[in-house]
Write a structure and sequence with these properties.
The protein is about 80% helix and about 0% strand. The chain has helices at about 1-35, 45-70, 75-85.
């Protein structure tokens, strides 16, 4: 049981790291490499908009992986919050 949970945590951690790395790369490319403006319907403008769309969807995927990460660690979070009196572990 613990082995399966550890494998799930490892997969979620790896996926979130990859998505975060891609999120950083697309953000930096959009900010530093691709020029703003450009002509109408130029390949630069189309590439910039494509990169912006990919960046936005990667942000959604990253938020989902963080949600799964928190869900998998929920018992640990409850235990530590209960230790400091912030969460009633017995009531929830």
């Amino acid at each position: 049981m613990a082995s399966q949970k550890n494998m799930k945590l490892w997969v979620v951690d790896v996926v979130s790291f990859i998505v975060l790395s891609l999120l950083a790369i697309t953000g930096l490319v959009n900010w530093l490499v691709l020029p703003r403006g450009g002509g109408r319907n130029s390949w630069v403008t189309e590439t910039r908009h494509f990169i912006m769309d990919v960046h936005a969807w990667l942000a959604v995927v990253f938020l989902l992986t963080i949600g799964v990460h928190i869900w998998l660690h929920w018992s640990y979070i409850k235990t530590n919050l209960a230790r400091y009196g912030w969460f009633n572990a017995k009531g929830r």
